[in-house]
Specification:
Its cofactor is pyridoxal 5'-phosphate. The chain is an alpha/beta fold. The protein is 41% helix and 15% strand. The strands form three sheets. It has a six-stranded mixed sheet, sandwiched between helices. A four-stranded parallel sheet has the order 8-7-6-9, with helices on both faces. Strands 2-1-3 form a three-stranded antiparallel sheet, with no helix packed on it.
Amino acid sequence: MQFVRYLQCVHCGGIYLPDVVDYYCPKCGYQHGILDVIYDYDAVEAHLNPQSLAADPVRTMWRYLPLLPVANPELIPHLQVGWTPLYNTPKLAEWLGVEQCWVKDEGRNPTASFKDRASAVGVVKALEKGATRITCASTGNAASSLAGFSSAAGLPASIFVPRRAPEAKVAQLLVFGAQVFSVGGTYDQAWELCMLASAEFGWYNRNCAINPYLIEGKKTVSLELAEQFYELTPGKFPDWVVVSVGDGCTIGGVWKGLKEMHRLGFIPRLPKVLGVQAEGCQPFLTAWLNHQPLQPCDADTLADSIAVGHPRNFHKGMQAVVESGGAFVAVPDEAILEAMTTLARKAAVFGEPAGVTGAAGVKAAVQSGIIDPAESVAIIVTGNGLKDIASAIKAAGAPTLIEPDLEAVRKAL
C-alpha cells in the first residue's frame, strides 16, 4: 500500500482512505458504488520502470508490487502467479484473418486460470485484515482459485457456486479443502447469498466487483503484456487486446493495467479493447449497442465462466471499451466450440470455452469490419481446457474405436 493514495467511487466520485472502507462506497451501495484504487503514479515511476524491471529476477505478478495494494509482502502465498507465456501464432492469425495474432495463456497459472491473479491479492488482503475465513461466489474459476490460494495461506474458505458449475471445477474446490455450497439457482443468486453470508458471519469477501483490490490483481496481466512486448518489439504494441467478458472485472482490470503501463512509458499508444460475450448472455453488448443502462438477462451458454446475466462491475467493463474506442461482440456457442479446437490445433493452447471466446470474437469482429485485416491482436486465454472436459469432448468428438490388431488400424486410416 506504499503508493496507494485513496479509493474513489466510480459513481459519485467520493474519496475514501483505505482504512475507512473495505469494499464499496457507503453512499452508493454495492450495486453502484464500485471503488477504484488510486496510486501516486509519479512516486511509482521511480520504482517501476524499464530499468528496474530489467534488474528484477522475480518473474511473477509480484514484480509489479509498487502498483499493487499490498501492505505486508511477507503474507504473499508461495504459489507462483503470473508471467504466463505469450505466443506469436501465425497460423491462428491466418485463420482469424488478421495481420498478426499473439496469445497469452493464462491457463498456466497455479489453478489453471486468470482468476489466480485476483485471488492472490484477495488472500493477502484478508490476512492483512486478520480475517478468519474468506468467501466468494463463482461460476467456477474464481472459486477454484480462491480454494487453492486460501489453502496455501492456511485460511478457511466458504465458496458458493451455482448447481450448473462444471464438475472439474467443483472437484478442485473440494480437493483444496474449501467448504462448498452448491446453490440451487443461478450465479447471480449464489452471488447475492454470498453477500448475505459475508455480512452475517463476518467473512472476508473476495467477490471481485465489490472488493476494490481484486481488480488490481487482474490488471497485472496487462502489466505483463506491456513488459513482454516492450522486450520483444520495443516501441510496438498490438492494435487490439481481446478478452471474454462476464462480470466486467477482467476487462476492467485489463484496461486499467494498459493505461498504467502507457503512463509509465512501456506502451507507445493505447490499444483498443475488444470485449467478447456469448450470444446467450450479452448484457454488455446490448447496453453498448443501444446506449442504455444495464439490463440484466438470463444466461444461456456453455461458457460457464462468462454466464453472468447481471454483471456486478458494469461501469468498469463498459469504460474499458468506450475509453479505448473498442467494441463488444457476441458469438454463438458453436463458434466457441470451434475456437476450442482451432486454438489448440493452430496455436497449441488448450482453453476452456470462456477462455477461447476471445478468439471466436476476433473472427466475428473481422468479418463484421470492426477489426481491419491489417491490424494485430493479442488474445488473453483466461482458463485451461481441462476445466471443462465435457465441452472439450463436444468440440473435438470421440476417439476411433478399434480392436487390438494392426488390420483394424489399417481399416481406420
